[in-house]
Write a structure and sequence with these properties.
Blueprint: E1 3-7, E2 10-13, E3 18-25, E4 33-39, E5 46-51, E6 57-59, E7 67-72, E8 77-82, E9 91-101, E10 104-107, E11 116-121
Parallel strand pairs: 2-11
Antiparallel strand pairs: 1-3, 3-8, 4-5, 4-9, 5-6, 7-8, 9-10, 9-11
Length: 122
């Protein structure tokens, strides 16, 4: 059974930083590309960062240069370091394994964790 548990969110002022964690179980973590998604109120869930099994990373334009994704295979955990936070980053953040086909990325698992709320005040 796949289980994804996100943590580390909170309320922060614009310009501040947060570090999110996602602990995964029930998957062969080291073999999977992992990603962080976010969903703001009234908007679709979007992929903001991915990291492959070989530690190659990719970022959405909106977060590039501010967010850093990393992973610890020994702990089955993926992280998202978020710096220079902006009010537009306010959302619930989720992780999932990522499947890339033909240049498009999709969440691998249908079940999602509860997410972690990030709120950035101006």
């Amino acid at each position: 059974q796949v289980q994804l548990v996100e943590s580390g969110g909170g309320l922060v002022q614009a310009g501040g930083s947060l570090r999110l964690s996602c602990a995964a179980s029930g998957i062969i973590f080291s073999s999977n590309a992992m990603g962080w998604y976010r969903q703001a109120p009234g908007k679709q869930r979007e992929l903001v960062a991915t990291i492959t099994s070989g530690d190659s990373t990719n970022y959405a334009i909106s977060v590039k240069g501010r967010f850093t994704i990393s992973r610890d295979n020994a702990k089955n955990t993926v992280y998202l370091q978020m710096n220079s936070l902006e009010p537009e980053d306010t959302a619930v953040y989720y992780c999932n394994a990522v499947l890339t086909i033909g240049g498009s990325s999709f969440p691998l698992y249908q079940s999602w964790g509860q997410g972690t709320q990030v709120t950035v005040s101006s």
